[in-house]
Design a protein that fits this description.
single chain, 264 residues, alpha/beta, Undecaprenyl pyrophosphate synthetase, 6-stranded parallel beta sheet, 9 helices, 46% helix, binds 3-methylbut-3-enyl trihydrogen diphosphate, binds magnesium ion
């Protein structure tokens, strides 16, 4: 795989890594503003953002991140102008068509998370086929969040658990965090380590609410279409420089680090 343009700086940051995050999520924000700054339509920004998606996937695959979760369309984004929603859906469909083969060749497993039942039936079919084609791939799991909302995810998990209780398959006492984790849309994936948001805003916008409990946050003013491997590398290097304490003290963590074990 070719890391192109900013190879040198990406390599420099790679040397400083102690820890590669296992699971990274990105709120890909700023397409509209990027286009407007150029005097173009917002939808031009969405189209241009596809190259940044490719760069992120290449980078994640290259450095050994095992799960990459990208926020493509939120449950709130339906409220945008009709034409913009329609372009976003068409783009999703086109990208699925053009990229799935490449993903498969690179041993990447694709998964779409979110309430896909609200998407166009043909798009749902394409998603299913793409997921089936790539389901046995192991190098990277690429989750695309479409019609995704963190609150939806929690309610969806709760409904499934409530049904289990109703059918006497589960006792309320058996409900704990580990069990709940099995019902959210990221079940089976590593804990979220790093959440990146481009576009300058410092908010979660109803993304992975349950999953970001102990994630590290990285915000950049870069607008999504300008995001690339070297900016991703800077975020990962920043992540590696942080001490994650999980509620413990700094010295407890240092002792655990020396023993080579993890607090949780
Ligand atoms: C992110 O860019 C893409 C989606 C939300 C689909 P935006 O479209 O939100 O761009 P800005 O934030 O308006 O610049
Ligand atoms: C978050 O961006 C959703 C995606 C990136 C898909 P938004 O642009 O929708 O978020 P807000 O409206 O600024 O919170
Ligand atoms: Mg936005």
């Amino acid at each position: 795989m070719n890391l192109s343009g900013n190879q040198a700086s990406a390599d420099a940051s790679l040397e400083t890594y102690q820890t590669i995050p296992k699971h990274v999520a990105i709120i890909m924000d700023g397409n509209g503003r990027w286009a407007q700054q150029k005097g173009k339509l917002r939808t031009f920004g969405h189209k241009s953002g596809v190259e940044a998606v490719r760069a992120s996937v290449r980078y994640a695959r290259e450095v050994g991140i095992s799960s990459l979760t990208l926020f493509a369309f939120s449950s709130e984004n339906w409220q945008r102008p009709k034409e913009e929603v329609s372009v976003l859906m068409q783009l999703f469909s086109l990208v699925l068509k053009s990229e799935v083969k490449k993903l498969d060749q690179n041993n990447i497993k694709l998964k779409v998370i979110g309430d896909t039942s609200a998407l166009d039936k043909k798009l749902q079919e394409k998603i299913k086929k793409a997921e089936q084609k790539t389901e046995n791939n192991t190098a990277l799991t690429l989750n695309i969040a479409a019609n995704y909302g963190g609150r939806w995810d929690i309610i969806n998990a709760t409904k499934q658990i409530a049904n289990q209780v109703k059918n006497n398959a589960l006792l309320p006492e058996q409900i704990d965090e580990a069990l709940f984790n099995n019902y959210v849309s990221t079940s089976g994936l590593p804990e979220l380590d790093l959440l990146i948001r481009t576009g300058g805003d410092h908010r979660v916008s109803n993304f992975l609410l349950w999953q970001c409990a102990y994630a590290e946050f990285y915000f950049t003013d870069t607008l999504w279409p300008d995001f690339n491997e070297s900016i991703f590398a800077v975020a990962v290097a920043d992540f590696a420089s942080r001490q994650r304490r999980f509620g413990l003290t700094g010295s407890q963590i240092m002792t655990l680090d020396k023993k080579g074990s993890e607090p949780c």
